[in-house]
Design a protein that fits this description.
The chain is an alpha+beta fold. The chain has helices at about 15-20, 35-45, 50-60, 105-125, 190-205; strands at about 1-5, 25-35, 70, 75-80, 80-90, 95-100, 135-140, 160-165, 165-170, 175-180. The strands form 2 sheets. Strands 2, 5, 6, 7, 8, 9 and 10 form a 7-stranded mixed beta sheet that branches. A hairpin with a 2-residue loop joins strand 3 (about 70) and strand 4 (about 75-80). The longest helix has 18 residues, at about 105-125. The two termini are about 30 Å apart.
Amino acid sequence: MKTEVNPCETSRAEAFRLWMSSPMPMVTLVKTLDVTRLVKASIKSGIKFTSLMCWCIGKAASQVEEFYTLPVDGKMYRYDRLAINVIVNNRNGGINSCDIPYTDDLQQFNRDYLELTAQAARECKSSFLEDHMVVGTSAMIQTELDGIVNQYTDQFCNPFLAWGRYRKGLFKTTLPISFQFHHVQMDGGHGARFLDELQKTIKGIEYGNIKLV
């Protein structure tokens, strides 16, 4: 559900006052993640690395309260559900946008990921979940990248993560990732906490209550 809220009644009141009208309100953090266990989990389970990565992003985001609010067109909205957006290469050689609802159930998320991305590729149509707070992603695995900066515009205020090809080392596999977010939605400390939570989620992917195929 998407509900408009009074920003003055939220913890982001001062941030809303300071940066809602900023011409460049986006902040970008870059971090290199250890994805060794995620790669192993992908091989072990048969689940695509990108699907696992997107699930981990949703899992980590669900632990940070600030992800559930978003400033749009001078207003503040509150959401009770998250979704992960992925960019899909379609059969005509173009791209489409695809929103995948996040759930703690990894198996269900992967089924939705496979079904919705295949549909987007086949039909060459984008799909959007307007009642979800959407976290954007883009995986450019054609090459290794040190960092990515998305367009700085008020046309797209959602948090956005992007990465290239992961790097295999002798003892571990790493992945530089860029995380961009609207300063009204969260501060740098919240962004840093999310990235730490993402790393923690990735390192725990093979353990706990997470059931792989």
